[in-house]
Specification:
Layout lengths: L9 E6 L6 H12 L3 E3 H11 L2 H12 L5 H12 L7 E5 L5 H14 L1 H5 L6 E6 L5 H6 L1 E3 L6 E3 L26 H24 L3 E5 L4 H16 L3
Parallel strand pairs: 1-3, 1-4, 2-3, 4-7
Antiparallel strand pairs: 5-6
Helix pairs in contact: 1-9, 2-3, 4-5
Bound molecules: BIS(adenosine)-5'-pentaphosphate.
Length: about 240
């Protein structure tokens, strides 16, 4: 299916705990609207893989399931959002994750995209994917992904056609290093303590939308598309 590039969806922020489906839904938004996914988790993992100075600094923090310090995030995110492929919009997956990051993002968008903001084109649509915590551990421990194309599978709910093999690339699926039970508990604790206030930050500003993340992947996608097309129509 060709991407619908007629919709300038602008910035979209997906919020939700680990395993809520942010990555899964980001990919679907990318395919439908032809905008990039900006996943701070993926960007950080790539830095770790390449052994960059940033990667060396964050490797142990990520392995423990803690959040990377705010000040290490900003240059990386700013550099990514300034690229030309973000002009029609982008999906922020995993950022902002603290109230300080949310305030930084607002200031950054004001500063760098003031004209667009005036025309209402640049204000992020913030979507919280709400899920029941009881199912998250199973979702995350069941996750497998393709190291080549990044497709996300789940051994319980979305298995590949052939066990451990990407349907598209034929490559062997991998499990993320931080998807071990003891690390997942730490990641969930970090969400509760540091990221939940971000939900409140956007709710206070009247910019928060919620979808039911316990529905099937297809149903969650439909809720998100409805929101995006409703919100940006008339701009
Ligand atoms: P990051 O990579 O962002 O991980 P996360 O937020 O923990 O989120 P996940 O990728 O685990 O979950 P997801 O919501 O994307 O779920 P998915 O779609 O894969 O961050 C990793 C680390 O990087 C952090 O711990 C931190 O150290 C660091 N970091 C990143 N950003 C940072 C920031 N801004 N500041 C500081 N540090 C930062 O789905 C999960 C599984 O469920 C899959 O198997 C999928 O198939 C399945 N699934 C999805 N939807 C459904 C559904 N509706 N029904 C059934 N199954 C489903």
């Amino acid at each position: 299916m060709a991407a619908d590039t007629a919709h300038n969806i602008g910035p979209v922020i997906l919020l939700g705990p680990p395993g809520a489906g942010k990555g899964t839904q980001s990919r679907r938004i990318v395919e439908r609207y032809g905008v990039p996914q900006v996943s701070t988790g993926d960007l950080l993992r790539e830095n770790v893989r390449q052994g960059t100075p940033l990667g060396i600094q964050v490797k142990d923090v990520m392995a423990r399931g803690e959040l990377v310090p705010d000040e290490l995030m900003y240059d990386m995110v700013a550099e990514r959002l300034r690229r030309t492929d973000c002009e029609r919009g982008y999906v922020l997956d995993g950022f902002p994750r603290t109230s300080a990051q949310a305030a930084w993002l607002d200031a950054f968008l004001q500063r760098e995209f003031f004209e667009k903001l005036q025309r209402g084109k640049c204000l992020p649509i913030v979507i919280r994917i709400g899920v029941d915590y009881n199912g998250l551990l199973r979702r995350i421990t069941g996750r497998r992904s393709c190291p080549v194309c990044g497709r996300i599978y789940n051994v319980y709910s979305q298995p590949p056609r052939v066990a451990d093999t990407c349907d598209v690339e034929g490559s062997k699926l991998v499990t993320r290093d931080d998807d071990r039970e003891e690390v997942i508990r730490e990641r969930l604790a970090a969400y509760e303590l540091q990221t939940k206030p971000v939900v409140e930050y956007y709710a206070h500003k009247g910019r928060l939308h919620c979808v039911d993340g316990d529905a099937s992947v297809e149903q969650v996608t439909k809720q998100i598309w409805r929101l995006l097309e409703g919100e940006r129509s008339g701009e």
